[in-house]
Amino acid sequence: MANKIMTIDTLPFPIIRAEERRPVAGWLLSSAAWVGLYGSAALWLAVTALIIEAKGFIGFVFALGMFGLFYVTVFPTMVRLILRGRKMRSPRANDILSGQSRPPVVLLRSFEDDDLIDPSFPTTSQIAPGRYEERLAKALSAVGPSVALGRPGET
């Protein structure tokens, strides 16, 4: 059997077109989220200093409550926007596969692991966690481009 290179047109399964990637919009979204994250943290610090100076211990307790509100509302929203921007910047599978002469590497894993966070995340300096699958695909890139199969019925 000849060693045949698979292309987009010869894959044994249908390609479902996902929404087009928008790298510029992804960079803008992630950048805005980072500015919002750091800006809101700086604003919290400035307001906290003013409140503590004016009200003492009661101001300190109030500032802790404001931090809790920030941590529960603003922080998760900004992290989601950073991750959404990262996803918008990622290249499409068709673009990756069409530019390769090596056969693809198929990563088989449970669909239950879709949101599995990179286990090294707590030891890194990242605020937005990477996914385990992304780290594994990066490691496998020396062998060939990684292909992931989606859940049936999912675009």
- Helical element count? 4
Beta-strand residue fraction: under 5%
DSSP E strands, number: 2
Rg from Cα: 22 Å
Q: What would your notes on this structure say?
A:
The chain is elongated and about 70 Å long. It has a two-stranded parallel sheet. The chain is mainly α and 155 residues long. Helix content is 52%, strand content 4%. The chain has two domains: 21-90; 92-155, no CATH class.
Descriptive terms for the model:
single chain; 155 residues; mainly alpha; 2 domains; two-stranded parallel sheet; 4% strand
Summary of the model, kept short:
This protein is mostly helical and 155 residues long. The chain has helices spanning 23-55, 57-89, 93-98, 132-140, and strands at residues 105-107, 146-148. Strand 1 (105-107), helix 4 (132-140) and strand 2 form a beta-alpha-beta unit.
